[in-house]
């Protein structure tokens, strides 16, 4: 473990040699990636390339088979480590909203702060209401999920993650299940979080968003980071032929 003063100047997240296998299939094959505090990193690449698995390993939803994941310089991938405290610091939002249908949007958001953080309703609700107001959903927080559009439900899912006051946010193809006209309102939330300095790792097929908003883009192919760099470099002058071939396909 590094000293505290060393951690303060290092990356927020550091992945080194991360390998993940499912049976005989290697999904992540030696991933090295440092993510600075306040940086937005977009992961692009074909379906099945390992983007989602990488996020799940960072959040400890999947154990790594080799290598390590460090948060503020501390190895969080150590076998036997309680994942609960880490998941409170690293939030994750998936493409499926996973809201409880029998609970209002507000109740969905306050559930974890009450049960996990031990807050009372009087403590949890004001903070949740402030998040609803911030993301233009105050008028919908008493509604049930089936009364909300897909974009509104996804924004509630993001608010639910933010209610735990995470230090890092992971987003896994959060616009993939949405109608095209609803995508923009969800991406606007990510832009707001970027402006706030939230550290984010985003797996996305939204190339225009990655090009416009990311600090860095990583092209993942066959479980490896094949190329990474500023969006302008990746999208206009990629070095690798595999990156060029992928972008020709998705940017038609």
Strand share of the residues?
15-25%
Major β-sheet strand ordering: 6-7-8-3-9-10
Which residues sit in consecutive blocks of at least 5 with pLDDT less than 50?
1-7
Tell me the structural class. alpha/beta
Largest sheet: 6 strands, mixed
Report the end-to-end length measured between terminal Cα atoms: 47 Å
Task: Please trace the helix and strand order, writing H or E for each element.
Answer: HEEEHEEHEHHHEHEHEEHH
* Mean residue pLDDT: 93
Tally of DSSP β-strands: 10
| Number of separate helices | 10
Radius of gyration: 18 Å
- Principal-axis shape equals globular
Helix content: 25-40%
Task: Walk me through this protein's architecture.
- It is a single chain.
- The chain is an alpha/beta fold and 252 residues long.
- Helices cover 39% and strands 24% of the residues.
- It has 10 helices and 10 strands.
- The chain has helices at residues 4-9, 51-58, 83-89, 105-115, 121-134, 150-162, 180-195, 207-213, 231-236, 241-250; strands at 13-22, 25-35, 40-44, 66-71, 74-75, 90-93, 168-172, 199-203, 216-221, 224-229.
- The strands form 2 sheets. It has a 6-stranded mixed sheet with strand order 6-7-8-3-9-10, with helices on both faces. A 4-stranded antiparallel sheet has the order 2-1-4-5, with helices on one face.
- β1 and β2 form a beta hairpin.
- α4 (105-115) packs parallel to α6.
- The longest helix has 16 residues, at 180-195.
- Residues 1-7 have low confidence and may be disordered.
